[in-house]
Design brief:
- The protein has 369 residues and is of the alpha/beta class.
- It has two domains: 209 residues, Isopropylmalate Dehydrogenase, CATH 3.40.718.10; 138 residues, Isopropylmalate Dehydrogenase (3-Layer(aba) Sandwich), CATH 3.40.718.10.
- It is built from twelve helices and 14 strands.
- The protein has a ten-stranded mixed beta sheet with strand order 2-1-3-12-11-4-5-10-8-9, sandwiched between helices.
- Helix 7 links the parallel strand 8 and strand 9.
- The longest helix is centred in the C-terminal third of the chain and has 25 residues.
- It is globular.
- The two termini are 29 Å apart.
- The structure holds nicotinamide-adenine-dinucleotide, 3-isopropylmalic acid and magnesium ion.
- The site of 3-isopropylmalic acid has 7 residues, from helix 4.
- This is 3-isopropylmalate dehydrogenase.
- Catalyzes the oxidation of 3-carboxy-2-hydroxy-4-methylpentanoate (3-isopropylmalate) to 3-carboxy-4-methyl-2-oxopentanoate. The product decarboxylates to 4-methyl-2 oxopentanoate.
- Its EC number is 1.1.1.85.
- Its cofactor is Mg(2+); Mn(2+).
Length: 369
């Protein structure tokens, strides 16, 4: 059956890393005999330039007609002075909201091959495998009013608002993931200050009654930010609201060695999802063949797993990434003096070759079995 994939490269390194996702998916479809149909759409600054809006209707229509969406990154200095209502980032927020993608999964893995690329000590990060479950369509990112006030616009207002149902559905999702993993859930909030966080805690406690086998702890976000670096192996699933999840996931990327290693999936209750790296458009390295494409390629693997239920295909991508890292190959964002530093394009090529080779080897082994 044909799987329709919307491809939204966006801005900066978005297009460079998207090339990696599409090339690994082509390798996967050739090896495993799938039919993937790609339709490209504009988003972010590229869409502002072409259509005057960061999320044109044509793009949203393509996404609504697709089984999954791949997104590179949006934003950059070129659009720093556009009106706040049409900033590139508004396009990203709008697509998440319009498609109801409330559950953002951000897994953080400390690859053994990259253990020395992190400024954190080896013994602190070596067993880390955690999952940040970030609420993605509520909170201060979307609360109204959000505006400037006063004669000279000297007052700025943002609103942090959640309704119980929004909290309930993300907390429920997080419990499900915790139950399927090591049955430990850390809920991160700021309940010593924020009313929304006190409600968040009530919901977590209520939902926990349905998951007696899952151990729950509440943690304040400032303390969580410290513990995530001090003893990251103490965490398994973390559930938190939109802005805390944004900040903690960039922080957690240091455990993996680089922001260029963190993939993400944004899901709703059916299987439709949007898959994008955690990083942004990296204007400082855009167009230089320096971007690490692995976060985007690993996001494509998450798409295979979560939207298409293609577990062995997802593993084929993840194993190929691991094999390339085993060879000592890495992009310049990873600080590994003994390794072999390659550009974006060569990194993509190497992962594709490993997918093809591994598939050919398993075919031969199967024939002799
Ligand atoms: N999902 C998204 O589209 C998304 C996410 C974050 C930021 N942004 C936007 O991106 C723009 C730049 O933001 P920023 O500089 O704060 O964050 P950024 O994530 O783009 O970059 C932060 C740092 O990490 C490096 N980096 C990021 N991804 C990398 C990769 N794949 N390979 C190698 N190095 C990588 C960059 O070179 C930079 O030094 C802003 O407009 C921001 O709003 C978009
Ligand atoms: C670009 C921005 C709107 C976005 C966010 O804050 O959600 C980004 O930082 C992310 O982590 O996906
Ligand atoms: Mg972010």
């Amino acid at each position: 059956m044909v799987k329709r994939i919307a491809v939204l490269p966006g801005d900066g390194i978005g297009r460079e890393v998207m090339d990696g996702a599409v090339r690994v998916l082509k390798a996967v479809s050739d090896c495993f005999g799938h039919d993937f149909k790609y339709t490209e759409g504009l988003i972010g600054g590229a869409a502002i330039d072409a259509a005057g809006t960061p999320l044109p209707k044509a793009t949203l229509d393509v996404c609504k007609e697709s089984d999954a969406i791949l997104l590179g990154a949006v934003g950059g200095p070129k659009w720093a002075d556009v009106s706040p209502n049409i900033r590139p980032e508004k396009g990203l927020l709008a697509i998440r909201k319009a498609l109801g993608l409330f559950a953002n999964l951000r897994p953080v893995t400390a690859y053994s091959q990259l253990i020395n690329a992190s400024p954190l000590k080896k013994e602190i990060i070596e067993n880390v495998d955690l999952l940040i479950v970030r609420e993605l369509t509520g909170g201060i990112y979307f609360g109204e009013p959000s505006e400037r006030r006063g004669k000279n616009k000297e007052i700025a207002v943002d609103t942090l608002l959640y309704d119980k149902e929004e909290v309930h559905r993300i907390v429920e999702k997080a419990f499900q993931f915790a139950q399927a993993r090591s049955k430990k859930l850390t809920s991160v909030d700021k309940a010593n200050v924020l009313e929304s966080s006190r409600m968040w805690r009530e919901v977590v406690d209520a939902v926990s009654a349905g998951y007696p086998d899952v151990k729950v702890e509440h943690m304040l976000v400032d303390s969580a930010a410290m513990k995530l670096i001090q003893s990251p192996e103490d965490f398994d699933v973390i559930v938190t609201e939109n802005m805390f999840g944004d900040i903690l996931s960039d922080e957690a990327s240091i455990i993996a060695g680089s922001l260029g290693m963190l993939p993400s999936a944004s899901l709703r209750s059916d299987n439709v999802g949007l898959y994008e790296p955690v990083h942004g458009s990296a204007p400082d390295i855009a167009g230089e063949n320096k971007a690490n494409p692995l976060a985007m390629m690993l996001s494509a693997a998450m798409m295979l797993r979560h939207s298409f239920q293609m577990e062995k295909e997802a593993l084929a991508v993840e194993n190929a990434v691991s094999a390339v890292l085993n060879e000592g190959c890495h992009t310049a964002d990873l600080n590994i003096p003994s390794g072999h530093c390659v550009g974006t394009d060569e990194m993509i090529q190497k992962v594709v070759e490993h997918i093809n080779e591994n598939h050919a080897i398993s075919g031969i082994l199967a024939a002799y079995a």
